[in-house]
Amino acid sequence: xFVVEFTRMVGRVLASAPPEHxxxxxxxxxxxxxxxxxxKEKATQRQLDLNIKKQPTCREYCEYMHSLTDKPYPVxxxxxxxxxxxxxxxxxxxxxMPAPYNEFAQRWGNTDFTxxxxxxxxxxxxxxxxxxxxxxxxxxxSFLRVAKIEHNFWQMAFHTAQHESK
Length: 166
Hints:
Largest sheet: none
Distance between the termini: 24 Å
Number of helices: 7
Low-confidence stretches: 162-166
Mean pLDDT: 90
Oligomer: single chain
Order of helices and strands: HHHHHHH
Radius of gyration: 16 Å
């Protein structure tokens, strides 16, 4: 459910982006198509019903991503990069992951994804350099909000997994 809303957010980021940023963003959208299909496959394998109500943390995250629609591109680019960075670092920094988590680590912790995240960061930095001070402040606040929501999102997943294993 998160990735569906994230894909919509990336589409809105593309709509706000300068043309010289299109290639990187379009590459991300193509990868998201594969990711959405991969999640559907995993849900089918695990016999999970995806037509359920979002948990409060997921709902908050999705609503936050939607709220960025009217924000200036530097803010949107910062949030986009921050979200991808969280997944990249979250699956990369623990080191080698045991099965079944190694598949997830390979998806978001691999070197190609790391390069992509760096390109997103460069694009955000580029537009922030010339952005007005209030937009830079909004971007900083947005980055910190993503960090907080990501923390809560990972905790939600962890606690749900603990509950289901009992």
